[in-house]
Amino acid sequence: MFLDVENPSLVEIHKAADYIFHVAEIAGWDHVGVDLDFDGTDNVPIDLEPKLATDEQIWKFAGENILRVWTEVESYSQVLKSAGEKPTEEIWLGRKWTREDLSMPFMFHDTKGN
């Protein structure tokens, strides 16, 4: 994993790139991408280039995969809507919102919250 649990403020982009390539080797380039809250997204492909990622792989990673997934999710939501399913927020009465498990490692130390 590219996280340095002992020194979370010392995370380097090349470690993230190594992790991305590891996941791509296992799952394939159709299944890797940047999360929406990833800081520095504009700089990600630059560090992938020395690893010899193809332009197609970088395009998938930098946005095409998430757009494909969103399209599939939207299509499935239309299937559910046609079947009479209601959105979760309309049927989940009495729910209580809780914070995430902040004991888990985060990519950047400052994103851990208060």
Automatic annotation (TrEMBL):
It comes from the Eukaryota. InterPro entries: Metal_Hydrolase, Pept_M19. One of its GO terms (biological process) is proteolysis. It is an enzyme of class 3 (hydrolase). Pfam families: Peptidase_M19. Its EC number is 3.4.13.19. Keywords: Dipeptidase, Hydrolase, Metal-binding, Metalloprotease, Protease, Zinc. GO terms for molecular function: metal ion binding; metallodipeptidase activity. It catalyses: an L-aminoacyl-L-amino acid + H2O = 2 an L-alpha-amino acid. Its cofactor is Zn(2+). SUPFAM superfamilies: Metallo-dependent hydrolases. Hydrolyzes a wide range of dipeptides. Belongs to the metallo-dependent hydrolases superfamily. Peptidase M19 family. This is Dipeptidase. It comes from [Emmonsia] crescens.
